[in-house]
Design goal:
The chain is an alpha+beta fold. It has three helices and five strands; from the N terminus they run βββαββαα.
């Protein structure tokens, strides 16, 4: 089971921590009431998708003995105009060094997207999410 926690710092700044103790600061821009000290949550979602897929792609390319030296991703998320302003479209572009065959990169991307990346799979079929409110003891 995956676990994470979130702790409020001040204003709209929070620190999220994973099960291994790694942390990331979340915030938003001043125009939305934040201080701009951290990653916006919706952009963190894009980063999670790119990170998950990139790990798969590099692993697959290495198994193919491809000469992969660089892999970068660019993401664009289009959001709806009305609340909750969810992503309506996400575009992910992966770029590898020229020594990698484009066909190998494309096939690795497809395998990640369709078979291995749990973030991609979660975005394709929404999970059941439950919520609970509680007060500290």
């Amino acid at each position: 089971m995956a676990r994470a926690s979130l702790r409020w710092v001040e204003n709209l700044t929070f620190v999220a921590t994973d099960s291994l103790g790694h942390s990331v600061v979340l915030d938003t821009i001043p125009e939305q009431g934040g201080d701009g000290r951290g990653i916006k949550p919706m952009e963190l979602l894009l980063m999670a998708l790119a990170g998950c897929m990139a790990m798969d792609i590099v692993s697959i390319l290495k198994k193919k003995r491809a000469d992969v030296r660089r892999l970068n991703a660019e993401l664009e998320g289009t959001r709806s105009e009305t609340d909750p302003k969810r992503f309506t479209d996400i575009k992910v572009t992966f770029r590898a060094n020229r020594e990698v065959k484009l066909e190998d990169l494309q096939r690795s991307l497809e395998l990640s997207r369709d078979k291995y990346c749990s973030v991609s799979a979660t975005l394709q079929i929404a999970p059941k999410v439950s919520y609970e409110a509680a007060l500290e003891e």
